[in-house]
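Re-running Phosphotransferase to confirm reproducibility after the cluster update. Everything else is unchanged from the original entry.
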Amino acid sequence: MAGVEEEVEVVVAHSERATLRVGDVFLKIDADQARTDVEVEAMAMAPLPTPRILWRKPPVLALAALPGKALGRLGEPSAASPAAWAAAGAAARMLHDAPLPPWPGRCLDEIASHLDAECAWLVTNDVLPADLVTRNRQVAEAALRPWTPVFTHGDLQVSHVFMDGDEITGVIDWSEAARGDALFDLAILTLGHEEHLGDVVAGYSADVDLDVIRGWWSLRSLTAIRWLAEHGFDPSLPGCEVDVLRSRM
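Result of re-run:
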């Protein structure tokens, strides 16, 4: 209809980056062009469906919307079927079997140092009870072991996987893609959705150390809380990071 204008929806916005939706186009604005470089190259390499790049004019990257809807949301029950969760696991396995990206990921020492610093901050600033932090730091230790690097998405949140019924239509937000631990991707996919871990592992079709998955749940939650709070998100909402930590007690 003539004269009808598309509304601008703010999908996410904070001091580092913002994503806007205008109709079927997503505009990602990021002052750090290195992240956008990684996203563009990772999408070109990934053996999974990804959003179509419409144009790029730094600091903006324009992407076409994917069909379907997200597998779920952190803090909300997922309405997706067990088969859909298994399909997400199979997609992760396909990615992890793909050739490695040429750029490295975070090393084990860097991850452990960051974890210790965030745990100290949480306790020193009375953000969380010391026993809760201590217990989850112990659980996180299972993730701090050598791994064989694979092509990881790096932020495979349940809201980044799009489905049409039980079929994957695409995976978004590749700016954290790198060489990394396969079980980290599986942990991020199932963070706050522990009841679907069995379906994801079944779709992944490989031996998975569940203690390592739980370790990554604790590690991710401990290290994310400060960033989330400083960027306008609430990690204490039901089903989110603080509840994930409490579930380990």
